[in-house]
Structures are given as structure tokens and as C-alpha cells.
Amino acid sequence: MAVNLKEKYAAELLTVDGAQVFIGQAGIKKAAHDDLTLIVLNPDNTIGAVFTQNRFCAAPVHIAQEHLANENGIRALVINTGNANAGTGIKGREDALTVCRAVAREIGCEPEQVLPFSTGVILEPLPTSKIVSALPNLKPAHWNDAARAIMTTDTVPKSASRESRIGNNHTVRATGIAKGAGMICPNMATMLGFIVCDANVSQPVLQMLTQEIADLSFNAITVDGDTSTNDSFVIAATGKCGQNEIDNIADPRYDQLKELLGGLALELAQSIVRDGEGATKFITVKVENAASREEARKVAYAIAHSPLVKTAFFASDPNLGRLLAAIGYSGLENFDTDKVRLWLGSALVAEHGGRAESYTEEAGQMVMNQDEITVRVDLQRGGEQATVYTCDLSHDYVSINADYRS
């Protein structure tokens, strides 16, 4: 059961000029289920993208990276679910290229202008013939249909829209979809995220923006600490909003666009955690006053990855020892534990190397009974901070992953 996450209605999602969405049934996932999505972009768009850092990254990831490097412009994103085309060797690579060629024939572009994405079972050959046969029969669709079509173990389609004035005279629209519920860990995990906006941004600037946004959203979540083979995050800018191009990061509009798209990406990323496999609680881990941002992330992820911490949250057990132990093994150098302060919600639970005098078990229990919990750590070592989002670890997580082959 997803934690405070509901499916968006079609009317809640904005159309974006310069982008068209099509979906259909290739018969990869299940009979009579949409499992193939095509996003067609206008010729003058720009693309920013980041990909999984798993060394066994899937064939479509390799192909997408190569096509982006060609600098010929991207005209389409094609996404299949039900098969990851990962661990498939040379044939997997050729299968991904075959899909790109088929899409190119359908929309009238070069194969190098197509980015392929796959998600689903690993080590199984991609049923290319099914995908190629389904492409001519894809139907125009809305963004919420696409969000549902890219799901695997997700229980709720993940989509969001925002718009904001960028500069003096132009409003920029942005809509995004994402999928993911397990194998979620920083540096991209089993998730796909796509945002399309009508801003006018040069490709180098959009790539920098995409990386910055990913670091604060999709690279700041963890469900189970496993990093997958296929994950990708893409921002496409169609340039249709009527503004002049943003071609350097010193342009004041850059920060305005970062706020718009960053907020949208964070909403999508958090929705993945809220729909984490078997999740019953959404947990925010904030680490403050670290010597560096990397140090803050180390501590945050030590807490967020800990199975003992996560099972304590599932049990609504204010087990302070597990939290302090995670901070202690996070790998900080010259670490003075007496300076650490720890909060559960608004309750100060630890300081001066031990339990806070003001803390009561009742106060901790009240926080742990909630379905949204914030853990805050003050290291008192500097001025840097980091925030990570995670969920609890329940019996259902084990059941889901015992029954589903990755």
C-alpha cells in the first residue's frame, strides 16, 4: 500500500507543446496490458540525461548514451516494460538497435535519433518482434496513461505537472512520469524518470541542469540499497514556450527553471519511495552541519540503508540504538560522538553521547506511530547538509521479491 500517494487524474497533468505520447500493447508484460510507450518530440528539442552507474548496465542504456553522444538531435523515446534487455550480451544490443530502427521508420527520423529504455526481467532476451509489430498500432494517449504503461511492481502510476513564469514574459510548462518501487538506491536504481518541458535551453546547459536536479531528487532516494541495471532520468526541452534560449548558467532564468523542474523531479522521486515495495512509512533523513555535503550524504545513507533501522520503523519501535549505530559506522573521520544531536520528528532523543535528558519513550513512540517521519541529525562539524528519502522494510517487501523475478 503506497504511503499517501494517489494516482493523478488526466486533468491534473499539463500537455506540453512539442511532445506527443503514444501507448499500446506489445504483449511483453501481460496480455491486455499496455507495456509500450512512445514519446515523440519536435525536431528542435534538447535533451539532458543521466543513467545507472551499475557496471552491468543494460543494452538500451549503452545505446541511449551512444545516440546522445552523436549530437544529431533526439526525436523519440521508446519505453518497454516487462523485459529489461539486461545481461543479454551482443544480441541485446542488436535488439535495442532493432527497436530504434523500427521507431525511426514509423516517425520519419534516423535510428540514432531514438533513445530506447527497457524495464522488467533481467537475463531474458527482448521480444523484439512483438515490439516492432506493436509500434504501428500505438494510440495517442495522455501522460497518466503513459505513467501506468511503464509500471512494473509499482502499485500507483507516478506523474506530476507544474508550470511557472520563467523570466519576465513566459510561462514554462513541465510534465513528468516515473516508475520504480524496488532496487532503488542512489546513482540511479530501478527507476525510469522522464520530464518534458517547453523551455528553450541549450543542450550543454540542460545536461548540467539535469545532473544537478538528479543529485537532489532521484539520486537522493533509497528503498532497499540495490542499484539496478537500467535506470535513466531524462529531461527534454521542446523550446516551444516562446522565450529566448537559456545558454549559460549565469542567466537568472537558469535558477528559476531549476526550481521548477527540480520540484517536479523531487515529487516524482518521492513518489517512488512512497510506493516502495511493501512500504508503510515514508521517512526523511536530514543531516545538518557536516564538514562536507558528501559527509552528510554518508551519514544519511547509513541510516536510510540500515535494515535494522528500517525494520524498527516498520514495527513503530523507537529503537535509538539502531539510529546511533548507523551514524557511528557511516565512516566519518575524526568523529566526535559527543557533538551529535539526534531528533525523531520534533523530539530531541540523543545528545552529548547519550540519550537526551528531556526525551521520553512516549514522545518517541508518538513519532514512530506516524506514517511520515523525519529523522534529523546535527553533526556540529561544519555548515553542509544533505537530505535522503527512504521507507520502512516490511514483511510484504520479502513476499513481493520472493514472488517476482528481477
What can you see in these coordinates?
The protein has 406 residues and is an alpha+beta fold. The protein folds into 2 domains: 265 residues, L-amino peptidase D-ALA esterase/amidase, CATH 3.60.70.12; 122 residues, Roll (Ubiquitin-like (UB roll)), CATH 3.10.20. Helices cover 32% and strands 25% of the residues. It has a 6-stranded mixed beta sheet with strand order 14-13-12-15-11-16. β12 and β13 form a beta hairpin. α1 packs across α2 and α5 crosses α6. It is globular. About 2% of the residues have low confidence.
List its salient traits.
globular; 5-stranded mixed sheet; 406 residues; 16 strands; 11 helices; alpha+beta; L-amino peptidase D-ALA esterase/amidase; 2 domains; single chain; Ubiquitin-like (UB roll)
**Count of individual domains:** 2
Helix/strand/pairing class, anyone?
Answer: alpha+beta
Q: Termini separation (Å)?
A: 20 Å
- Total of DSSP H or I helical runs spanning 4+ residues: 11
Give the tally of β-strands.
16
Helix-strand pattern, N to C? EEEHEHEHEHEEEHEHEHHHEEEHEEH
Portion of residues within helices = 25-40%
- Uncertain parts: 183-189
CATH architecture of the largest domain, please? Answer: 4-Layer Sandwich
Q: Give the neighbour order of strands across the main sheet.
A: 14-13-12-15-11-16
For this structure, the CATH topology of the largest domain is L-amino peptidase D-ALA esterase/amidase
Computed Rg: 22 Å
CATH superfamily of the largest domain: L-amino peptidase D-ALA esterase/amidase
**Dominant shape:** globular
